[in-house]
Automatic annotation (TrEMBL):
SUPFAM superfamilies: TPR-like. Residues 1-24 form the signal peptide. The lineage of its organism: Bacteria, Pseudomonadati, Atribacterota, Atribacteria, Atribacterales. The keyword Lipid metabolism does not apply. It comes from Candidatus Atribacter allofermentans. InterPro entries: TPR-like_helical_dom_sf. Keywords: Signal. This is Tetratricopeptide repeat protein. It holds the Pfam family TPR_16. It comes from the Bacteria.
Length: 353
């Protein structure tokens, strides 16, 4: 929590430096003192009267700070309300549409997906053409609409149309391959693998970024493979994977790894996309040196399982996390995360805050 207060201390200082009048100097000074002492509630009470301001710049500064403080406390409805104060006073401004977008994202965090979708659709339909869009709010709202349709409502055909509409309305969109990947993902979920392959091939022929090239090629490999590594039941795969590690059977371990894009990485780092064959030398080095302890698998967010292995032979990363997720063919082992006691301590400290 201490880092949070330091961040907001700096933010408040910046607001004071760029504040065009002295309307809030005393209030912000007092709010800073309370934030430094960890008293968010008193800081909020000091700042709330400033929402009566009729100055657009001043009000936007206040509501952004209050929105963040309310969000930090988990008071999402209060966070939404403070943004609505600005929207009601200055409805046709860039900031107002930015705040409408924040409200939509907050409703998404609240798992009110229908309400979030309606707000996003309203932004896309009503964003004025004469005020500019420096935050790319309309474009981002279109992406979120497609994301909602794909992931929350399972409307894959609508999601595909929404993704492709983005590319047609924004021909200079810099991350076309990212959108095409989502289109391919929707076709995969519809079991239309040939159509998914078409879009992966498009990425291969038009993209120069190694990340998208590698991912599209690995997804093609995944779709073209005989999915012998999958199981219909997660418990079966977890048991087989645990047994393979307990026996230090590298051949069995390899046979259970997902083909195509297999993800690896260290906790708190970006993951790399690899073929499992690329990390076999790593397993060959450390598997025989390990006095493995295999812990019971834990279910996470009702979506996937993690099998934790300790006393792994790597002196720098003696902890492995194996991710078991449901793919289009069934349950599969698709990711490895490396960790160590120091990282675990950071995780615990983060959870405590």
């Amino acid at each position: 929590m201490r880092n949070f207060f330091m961040i907001w201390f700096l933010i408040l200082i910046l607001l004071l430096l760029f504040c065009p009048t002295s309307f809030a100097l005393d209030a912000f000074d007092q709010a800073q003192i309370y934030l430094e002492s960890g008293d968010i509630d008193r800081a909020i009470q000091i700042l709330k009267p400033l929402t009566n301001s009729s100055n657009e710049d001043e009000l936007s500064q206040v509501v952004e700070v209050l929105y963040t403080l309310f969000s930090e406390k988990g008071q999402n409805q209060d966070a939404i309300h403070v943004l609505q104060i600005f929207i009601e006073k200055f409805p046709r401004t860039q900031s107002a549409y930015l705040y409408r977008y924040w409200i939509a994202k907050t409703e998404e965090d609240n798992k009110k997906y229908q309400e979030s979708l309606k707000l996003l659709q309203k932004i896309v339909a009503e964003y004025p053409t004469d005020i500019g869009d420096p935050f790319n709010i309309r474009q981002q709202a279109m992406e979120d609409i497609a994301h909602h349709q794909e992931n929350y409502f399972g409307n894959y055909t609508e999601a595909i149309n929404s993704y492709l509409t983005i590319l047609s309305q924004y021909p200079d969109f810099e991350e076309k391959s990212r959108i095409l990947l989502q289109v391919a993902s929707c076709y995969e979920k519809m079991n239309q693998f040939d159509k998914a392959m078409e879009f992966y091939q498009k990425i291969r022929f038009q993209e120069t970024d190694p990340y998208y090239l590698d991912l599209s090629e690995l997804r093609i490999e995944y779709l073209q493979s005989d999915p012998t590594w999958t199981r219909k039941n997660s418990a079966i795969l977890i048991k087989e994977l645990g047994d393979a590690f307990a026996k230090k059977d590298l051949q069995a371990i390899e046979s259970l790894a997902k083909k195509g894009d297999f993800w690896t990485g260290q906790m708190f780092s970006e993951f790399e996309i690899v073929r499992f064959s690329q990390i076999i030398p790593y397993f060959s080095t450390y598997l025989t040196q390990s006095t493995l302890q295999i812990h019971p698998a834990e279910k996470k967010e009702n979506e996937y399982y993690i099998l934790k292995i300790t006393s792994w032979g790597d002196p720098d990363f003696p902890i492995l996390y194996l991710y078991i997720e449901k793919g289009i063919y069934g349950w599969e082992w698709s990711k490895i995360v490396l960790s160590n006691p120091e990282i675990e301590c950071q995780v615990n400290n983060f959870d405590d805050t």
